[in-house]
Amino acid sequence: MPAFDLHAALDGHDRVFLAFSGGKESVVLAHMLEPWRDRVTLLWTNTGHMAPHMVEFVRAYSERFRLVELAPASLMGFWRDSGIPSEVVPTANASGDRLPRIAAWQACCAVNRTQPKVDHLARYGAPCAYVHGQRRDDPLIPTWEQRYPENVEAIAPLWEWAEADVMAYIARHGLALPAQYGEGYRDSLECIVCPAPMTAQRMAYLRRAYPEAAETAAQAMRVVLQETERAAIAIAEVICAEK
Ligand code: SF4
């Protein structure tokens, strides 16, 4: 796996924050940061809709690290006022000209998962390192540049790692992961009601473990499909009329 000099990156930083979700990358990073444990604080955004077994998993880390639990204003408030998070967004539903509103899921994640951490770092105010688990090849992670407060130096030790590198590190060090990793879905579950980005593996796991949340996500996907279909049909009708 690609080497990263964490010693050099953390040199001169008395305070280190780690973006912690209980997902595989954050578990790897917490393990890598064990030697600096006295100066590390885990920052976790509890969206209020995280899988309960993951909430338990994350809170257990407070036995070894300082853990700060943050929360967004209201995930469901965002869905209501800004839109259901989706991969596909008809513009009329994005602007609110047509209801229900639908929003890019990246915007929902930015407001409800990332922003509480950014706000905490800004409130902290003093120079600090912010270690996060973004990887270059993760298709589910927004690639826009995060606007960190000026007091923050962002560090991404896993940027060049592939998913296989992450899993190999976990296997080599015998690190525990939340239950879903052994049950067909190998990612974090920070919002079990989230309809996007959805995969067959995620939905299959949710239907077994959290059927009510799976139905909420499915219903949101049906709404998005219906609205997207309407917008697509309108385009198709224009194209067909041209012939
Ligand atoms: S995981 Fe889904 S519901 Fe949760 S913040 Fe991101 S887009 Fe919103």
Automatic annotation (TrEMBL):
Q: What would you give as a GO molecular function for this chain, any one?
A: catalytic activity
Q: Which residues form the Phosphoadenosine phosphosulphate reductase domain?
A: 16-197
Entries under SUPFAM superfamilies matching the protein:
Adenine nucleotide alpha hydrolases-like
**Source superkingdom:** Bacteria
UniProt cross-references to InterPro entries, sorted A to Z = PAPS_reduct_dom (IPR002500), Rossmann-like_a/b/a_fold (IPR014729), Sulfate_adenylyltrnsfr_sub2 (IPR050128)
**Protein's name according to its UniProt entry:** Phosphoadenosine phosphosulphate reductase domain-containing protein
Origin species? Alsobacter soli
